Amino acid sequence: MISLRIRKFVSLIRERGFDGALVSPSANFYYLTGLHVHEAGERLTLLVVNADGSYHLLAPSLYENVIRNFPVTFWRDGENPYHKLAWILGELELSGGRLLVEDTMRADWLINILRIGNRAFELYPLSSVIRELRMRKEREEVEMMKHAAKVADRVFEEVLSWDILGMRERELALKIELRIRELSDGISFEPIVASGENAANPHHAPGDRRIREGDMVILDYGAKVGGYCSDITRTIAVGQPNEKLVEVYNVVKEAQENAYRAVREGVKAKEIDRAARETIAKAGYGEYFTHRTGHGLGLDVHEEPFIGPDGEVTLENGMTFTIEPGIYVPGLGGVRIEDDIILDEGRGKRLTRANRELVVL
Ligand code: CO
Ligand code: CO
Questions:
Q1: What's the gap in Å between 133 CA and the centre of ligand 2?
Q2: Strands of 232-238's sheet, edge to edge?
Q3: How far is the CA of 231 from the centre of ligand 1 (A)?
Q4: How far is the CA of 231 from the centre of ligand 2 (A)?
Q5: Is 63 helix (H, G, I), strand (E, B) or coil?
Q6: Confidence check: pLDDT of 118 > 70
């Protein structure tokens, strides 16, 4: 499967007129090689791809027992890895031209690479091309995403059985994280727990505030399975909530549903955003919906296609993304509801199945 991905990648970059690619450890690196090498840290690790179909890996010798069945050159601490890279570039006959570079590559690596020999490369961000492959999930990728979404659903069910009244936000976030780690390969990002007026901040970092009677609490978290992320948000009430917030909850739920129903093969991402945004604006809360409606989901928790007012990507079967409208009223609180969606057989299907009705604990 992996070498098939590299083959697909090679024909895509050739089609787009590129001469090669340099891929440092990242989701793209994992996508192409199936190798987990994030622990390499500052040690130069690179997949070098030539558009003619040849490729070679440079890796620290720490991975000698891990990387097998892959064309690879190892370097030891004390050696200059850039000398070995120069040799690889020579072997692959990659001496200039249009080169794709992993977007998240460390600047010190890129600076050193550009100093190797007298090569004239024109650099482009790798994401601009590889996104075409990564946006459309293969069957095995979808299976892992379903599993990751199930873990998130299950943790939500469990949270509803916990006594969270009086708990600090950070304690609840830690408990959620612990359960995710017990049930999956890990968290897809640090869980968000935002209670009461803190919920008016969409990306609130859980703090020392204790959950009180009458709070609405936003929970936003996700699990990773086989590298693939889930991302769920639910807003729950502890004790009888403020009437205004109940109204806000119903508007967000309707916006989320309308955006979900707008998912069709062939529509642009911005149409999904518009469905959510119009629902919220009509209810008079337009100015309090301060972010895009959603984002693509996969190996990265935020990836293409982004579901925002400027989303020009045309949606296709196999794409996976979130729909997560929210309303945030300063001084009062906030509500967000987020599901993971796959476009399948021409329409949207929810991967997230957790209860979307307002739960009052
Ligand atoms: Co989220
Ligand atoms: Co999200």
A1: 21
A2: 192-195, 215-221, 232-238
A3: 5
A4: 5
A5: helix
A6: no
